[in-house]
Write a structure and sequence with these properties.
heterodimer; A: about 250 residues; alpha/beta; six-stranded mixed beta sheet; about 25% strand; B: about 260 residues; mainly alpha; 9 helices
Chain lengths: ~250, ~260
């Protein structure tokens, strides 16, 4: 469904992606792991067109992601941002129903609110949260609202950027379960970026490790522990010594 | 030789950098203005911008204008007394407020209040990935953030300038009639008789241009903000500096266009 072919991206003298190639089959959950600053978020943003790659191809359903109708393309995606990226000036329900209140998917406000409250309930939040503003919510609640917004228009493809960062272990577990349930129930294709190995095991069908701008290893999550790849082994066991330099 | 050429190189790079920045701002301005007439439209954001830029700026505009009008009356009276021309206070207050001080001071107050607020808000949205979130939600950031604010400023700032002109003249009237011994009816008659339609048109046109500059600079610097709190701070500072300088430069050009003989 999503295919990256030899994608390169540099910011001035700093090269981030050096030929990233990856295939994410339809209806599967791919988790990308890798150290900080290895280009995981850049890869997601390249797929969404938020950043233009310097070279290489990005295909979604066999079509070049950089051409064609942008609105129709983006309507297929939902994204949970690392910090939530909720709009401060809008109450929670309008954040969740943002796509349903404007553009091609626009519907009457009462109906959009109803859907927003249903999605909030889906991520474990009560209806009285709907009229609060994002600044009035805890970090975990903001993350869940972000998740509700990502799934509100029932997208075919969902991206999760570090969904459990900054959350306590229980809340992280709740978010992991939610993501897994949503992907399974909606039949969506998911790409997740995380450093959290508990998340990886909870969310992933397949895992890809990004290191030095290329996919170092990729395979089913069940084969991760006996991959024999020294980079992956060092990362999943959190060892300070190994082929990945601790000081980068 | 290289030591000799080094300052020239620095000067050249600075000049090219400046011209490139002017080009980027101009392109951003044209793009924003072209989007005003193309759907989708965001009426809710537009109404919110009207309230923020227009209605909520009234107190600061009114206070600035009334004190300026009062001070102007005192200055003209004291200055005019040196050559027995105290009687020109109503005329000079009117022409000074309507042609110059009204639009410029309102423009600068809008730069301080509105440009800074827009730049800080948009820059914070950028560093917290809210702009990226807008794009992923199929919403064009320029249409959603810049167009409603620029359009609201183009409409409300001329009105604020008009209100500021009236309040400024009223400030001069109060000082002149209460402290300087002018007859109220004669003061008003002199003011009305002396002002010409071109004075008022130039004031409102300046207000429209200054409003556009103020909102555009806030949006441009906010959208091009650097990372973190420092990036937001720099964007806010840069936007106010650019807006103030551009307003003063535009005032000079517009004054030349309207009043050069």
């Amino acid at each position: 469904m999503i295919r990256l072919e030899d994608v390169h991206k540099a910011f001035g003298p700093k090269t981030v992606l050096r030929g990233m190639t990856l295939h994410v089959p339809k209806g599967t959950s791919m988790v990308i792991i890798g150290g900080s600053g290895t280009g995981k978020s850049v890869a997601l943003k390249c797929i969404l067109g938020l950043i233009a790659p310097d070279s290489g191809r990005i295909l979604v359903d066999g079509k070049d992601a950089t051409t064609g109708d942008r609105d129709a393309f983006l309507a297929r995606f939902g994204m949970l941002f690392q910090g939530g990226a909720l709009f401060d000036s809008l109450p929670v329900w309008q954040n969740v129903a943002f796509r349903l209140l404007r553009g091609a998917l626009k519907r009457p406000p009462a109906q959009a609110r109803e859907i927003a409250i249903e999605k909030l309930r889906r991520v474990g939040l009560k209806p009285d949260v709907a009229d609060l503003f994002p600044a009035e919510l805890s970090g975990g609640m903001q993350k869940r609202v972000g998740l509700a917004r990502a799934i509100a228009a029932e997208p075919e493809i969902i991206f999760f950027d570090e969904p459990t960062t900054g959350l306590d272990p229980i809340m992280a577990g709740v978010i992991n379960e939610l993501i897994r349930e949503i992907v399974t129930e909606m039949g969506a294709t998911a790409m997740t970026i995380t450093h959290d190995m508990t998340s990886v095991r909870a969310i992933a069908d397949n895992v890809a490790m990004l290191h030095d701008g290329v996919i170092q290893w990729t395979g089913p999550v069940g084969k991760m522990d006996d991959s024999g790849d020294p980079y992956l082994d060092q990362f999943i066991h959190g060892r300070a010594t190994g082929p990945i330099e601790a000081v980068r | 030789m290289s030591a000799l050429l080094s300052p020239l190189g620095t000067l050249g790079r600075a000049t090219l950098g400046f011209l490139a920045a002017v080009g980027r701002v101009a392109l951003y301005g044209f793009a924003t203005l072209s989007h005003i007439f193309r759907p989708p439209f965001y009426p809710r954001e537009f109404l919110h911008a009207l309230l923020q830029i227009g209605w909520l700026s009234l107190p600061v505009v009114g206070l600035t204008a009334i004190f300026t009008g009062g001070a102007l009356a005192l200055q003209i009276y004291a200055g005019g007394a040196r050559f027995n021309a105290e009687a020109v206070v109503p005329q000079i207050v009117a022409i000074g407020m309507v042609r110059e001080l009204g639009p410029v001071l309102v423009g600068l107050m809008i730069a301080a209040r509105v440009t800074s607020s827009i730049a800080a808000e948009v820059a914070t949205m950028k560093v917290t990935e809210q702009i990226d979130a807008l794009v992923t939600l199929s919403t064009h950031p320029m249409k959603y953030l810049a167009v409603p604010r620029v359009l609201a400023a183009l409409i409300t700032v001329p009105i604020l300038v008009g209100v500021g002109d009236v309040i400024g003249i009223f400030g001069g009237y109060v000082v002149a009639t209460q402290n300087l011994g002018f007859n109220p009816a004669a003061y008003l008659k002199n003011t009305v008789d002396f002002l010409e339609p071109l004075d008022i048109v130039s004031s409102l046109v300046k207000g429209c241009v200054f409003g556009g500059i103020a909102a555009l600079m806030g949006c441009y610097y906010g959208m091009n903000s650097g990372r973190g709190a420092q990036g937001v701070g720099r964007a806010t500072k840069g936007s106010v500096e650019a807006a103030a300088v551009l307003i003063l430069a535009a005032n000079f050009l517009l004054t030349g266009v309207f009043f050069s003989v």
